[in-house]
Write a structure and sequence with these properties.
The chain is built from 18 helices and 35 strands. With 650 residues, the chain is an alpha+beta fold. The strands form 10 sheets. The protein has a 9-stranded antiparallel β-sheet with strand order 1-9-10-11-12-19-16-15-14. Strands 2, 3, 4, 5, 6, 13, 17 and 18 form an 8-stranded antiparallel β-sheet that branches. It has a 3-stranded antiparallel β-sheet with strand order 27-28-29. A hairpin with a 5-residue loop joins strand 2 and strand 3.
Length: 650
């Protein structure tokens, strides 16, 4: 039985089908996203969504959707689906769906009387072109297809409405047309693999509504422009390919282009293969010398911390070290530009955050395990040493090394950690001073850097200095963060100690080098198990702590206050599972495998084949935030890799 297959009963039940989304990317910044019944429920949804750097840094929805109408014996059956104001769904094309399968490429089968029509969709890698293949599998007579494009030409953060400025001009191209609604946008080319007739019938479809935006407290309706429709005949057994792109293509090559792209797709027939496919979706390949990892879809771009946390899982855990090197090459350029005080020439945000370079060292530390320490020394030992010297010499603008060996950062007025939500311009969680994971990362970086530098034959006095700082840091870490209740303060700033039970204390238990004793590690892990663990990861705050707010719902300000106050995060759960393996090895195997079930459930209930950003901290742990999140996918892949590794340890 197919892993990602849904039958008619679920597809025709909108309460079930509208909650299941799809994301396809071309690995160059563009994406295609909707629900499994092709009814857009977010302003971020669109059949063809592309970045337009000439306009801004946002993605833009050019082609919102494509309605197809089957015409047989003069009777029309519109297979499209839109939600209009007043909870009205039209034209209700979902009732014709027989099944949906997404194991390899999204495939929808429609049954309309004696007609059985199959629709398959792929996004060309590194090309701004979406391809849709329609195959008439059953049909006694010649059938006519009408393809009606709904155009938006807007940013993903805005809406379009009926106006007199939008251009109605179009130009005939090879088996299709090109059109552009507004100045500054590229032309949209819509072509078919077979000769067809384009019927110019311009109109606005008004009051289309997006319920996900309503849930988030935003405006939720817009008007979409339809320039007309393509009409083409199709015979039984015949396939026709439709393409939407920002450049023209020879229509006779469309079928081969579709087959070539479909042939490269990995089968998503199990949990692991779904995650590997999801991992590949996060790449943004600008050029051979400029490759990024997007933090998530549909609204995140490249963020520094997310890149380094996600990088090992997205590459090394699936045996793709070359991709690690490609992304790190771009990231290292940004790191060195920042350390040298030069303007950034790379599109990586938040590279100034104090812990970012320490996460970069952690990522390189994982690289030393695979492909190996020798390759790591060759490629990255100088970078690691330069970063450590940068901190030791006090050059970072917001990470100060104190005499006690700990690092201090000011986070009172600006969110500087991964808990980065703000309200009224201020951090919701103002973590400042000696921050627990910053110092766990610092100790780990010092110890790993000293070992790497020793193997590489670096200056002995420098290595001895790092080892001395690490020893001082170890003693100070325990006396500063370990409290009488057996867990770690989240941060300490002078006489201010944050007693909140938060998941950041799991890192010194999970890292290769930890300032904690085995007994202290077990105590911290036990607290995390009792108060933070959920089937979807670790809560960002214990229910027993003040301010617990586990439901990420409502308008923006309400969600901002809940973002890190009890929501559950899968990537944190992965570090928790790594900590279990370190302390208990094979004895925790069955426990961790049960935890993985909670993540595998996500493959079929939210955005198919991937992991969302977070979940509510209370049952039923509903998925929230971005539909696909790089750190979560990466860390679950890394956990699967660790399980395989520890399976050989007796």
């Amino acid at each position: 039985m197919s892993y990602l297959r849904f039958e008619k009963a679920l597809m025709t039940n909108l309460e079930e089908s509208l909650s299941r989304e799809l994301i396809r990317t071309n690995r160059s910044g563009a994406y295609s996203s909707s629900t499994i019944v092709d009814c857009n429920t977010r302003k971020y949804h669109g059949l063809f969504v592309v970045p337009i750097p000439e306009l801004d840094d946002e993605n833009h929805v050019l082609l919102s959707s494509l309605d197809i109408t089957v015409v047989q014996h003069g009777v029309e059956f519109n297979l499209g689906l839109h939600k209009y104001q007043g909870n009205n769904f039209s034209p209700a094309g979902h009732k014709y769906i027989r099944e949906f399968n997404c194991d390899k490429i999204p495939t929808t089968v429609y049954r309309v009387g004696g007609v059985l029509l199959k629709k398959e969709v792929v996004f060309q890698h590194y090309e701004n072109r979406i391809l849709i293949r329609y195959t008439l599998e059953e049909g006694q007579d010649t059938t006519t297809l009408r393809l009606r494009p709904f155009l938006a030409f807007r940013s993903v953060r805005q809406f379009t409405h009926e106006n007199s400025v939008a251009s109605r001009e179009y130009h005939l191209v090879d088996n299709g047309i090109s059109t552009c609604m507004y100045a500054g946008y590229p032309d949209l080319y819509m072509q078919l693999s077979k000769a067809n007739q384009f019927v110019f019938a311009p109109d606005w479809y008004r009051g289309i509504e997006y319920p996900k935006e309503q849930e988030r407290g935003y405006d939720s309706n817009e008007d979409l422009y339809v320039p007309g429709y393509f009409e083409v005949n199709i015979k039984k057994g015949e396939s026709i390919v439709f393409a939407a792109a920002t450049s023209e293509i020879k229509s006779r090559t469309l079928k081969k282009a579709f087959e070539a792209e479909a042939g490269e797709k990995r089968s998503r027939d199990n949990f692991y293969n779904c995650l590997v496919t999801a991992a590949h979706q996060f790449y943004n390949h600008v050029s051979d010398d400029e490759v990024y990892i997007f933090a998530g879809y549909p609204w995140f771009k490249c963020r520094a911390r997310d890149t380094f946390i996600a990088l090992p899982g997205l590459t090394l855990s699936i045996l793709e070290p070359d991709n690690f090197d490609i992304v790190m090459k771009t990231a290292e350029k940004g790191i060195r530009e920042f350390m040298d005080g030069k303007p950034l020439t790379v599109a990586i945000s938040e590279i100034d955050h104090p812990d970012v370079f320490l996460w970069a060292i952690w990522a390189i530390q994982q690289y030393a395990k695979y492909p190996g320490e020798e390759q790591c020394i060759k490629n990255y030992s100088k970078l690691v040493c330069d970063i450590l010297n940068y901190f030791v010499e006090g050059k970072h603008p917001n990470l100060r090394l104190d005499d006690n060996g700990l690092v201090y950062a000011n986070g009172r007025d600006k969110a500087i950690t991964w808990m980065n939500s703000t309200a009224n311009g201020r951090p919701v969680v103002p973590r400042t001073g000696y921050i627990v994971e910053f110092n766990a990362l610092w100790y780990n970086a010092l110890k790993f850097g000293a070992r790497l530098a020793t193997e590489a034959g670096y200056n002995k006095k420098t290595i001895e200095k790092w080892e001395s700082i690490a020893e001082t840091c170890k003693q100070s870490f325990v006396s500063t963060f370990m409290n009488d209740y057996g867990y770690l303060f989240d941060y300490v700033d002078g006489n201010m100690m944050d007693w909140s039970v938060r998941p950041n204390m799991i890192f010194p238990v999970a890292f290769d080098y930890s300032p904690l004793s085995p007994e202290q590690k077990k105590s911290v892990l036990d607290i995390c198990t009792r108060e933070l663990l959920t089937p979807k990861g670790l809560r960002s705050l214990s229910p027993k702590s003040g301010g617990y707010n586990p439901m990420y719902v409502g308008p923006q300000y309400q969600r901002d206050y809940a973002y890190h106050q009890g929501t559950a995060w899968p990537w944190l759960g992965a570090f928790y599972m790594e900590a279990n393996l370190r302390l208990y090895k094979r004895t925790r195997f069955s426990f961790i495998e049960r935890q993985m079930v909670g993540y595998e459930d996500e493959m079929t209930i939210n955005c198919l084949g991937t992991i969302p950003e977070m979940s509510d901290g209370n049952p039923p742990f509903r998925a929230r935030g971005a539909v696909s999140f790089a750190m979560n996918v990466a860390e679950i892949l890394r956990t699967l890799s660790l399980l395989e590794k520890y399976s050989y340890i007796k």
